């Protein structure tokens, strides 16, 4: 008699933080048991996911308490514009589209104006 057990396994893959740059994923797991090279790597690794709830971070037990201090970056980072969230950018883009639509209706086409002729 032959019996077989099937385990529910999904195919998965792993890539480095450098290769993930510029891509977006549904689920991301970041292994931070070793230190990242720089805070830029941590940024790239954590912002490759579509939803914040789909990001999983693995820390070693002895480093969980001080991990945030180590990966915070320099004590006085260079002055940069803050990173805006996608929902804020989407809202601004939609507001621009609405404003452009209102302007298009407010400005009449000169070809349709009889006083233009």
Automatic annotation (TrEMBL):
GO terms for biological process: DNA replication. Residues 60-117 are annotated as: Disordered. Residues 85-117 have a biased composition (Basic and acidic residues). Gene3D superfamilies: P-loop containing nucleotide triphosphate hydrolases. Residues 69-84 have a biased composition (Basic residues). InterPro entries: P-loop_NTPase. GO terms for cellular component: replication fork. PANTHER family: DNA HELICASE-RELATED (PTHR23274), OS03G0423850 PROTEIN (PTHR23274:SF51). This is Uncharacterized protein.
């Amino acid at each position: 008699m032959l019996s077989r057990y099937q385990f529910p396994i999904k195919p998965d893959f792993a890539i480095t933080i450098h290769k993930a740059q510029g891509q977006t994923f549904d689920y991301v797991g970041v292994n931070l048991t070793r230190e990242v090279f720089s805070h830029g790597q941590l940024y790239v690794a954590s912002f490759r996911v579509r939803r914040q709830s789909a990001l999983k971070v693995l820390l070693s037990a002895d480093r969980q308490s001080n991990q945030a201090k180590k990966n915070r970056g320099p004590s006085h980072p260079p002055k940069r514009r803050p990173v805006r969230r996608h929902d804020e950018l989407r809202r601004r883009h939609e507001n621009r589209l609405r404003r452009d639509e209102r302007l298009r209706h407010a400005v009449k086409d000169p070809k349709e104006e009889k006083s233009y002729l």
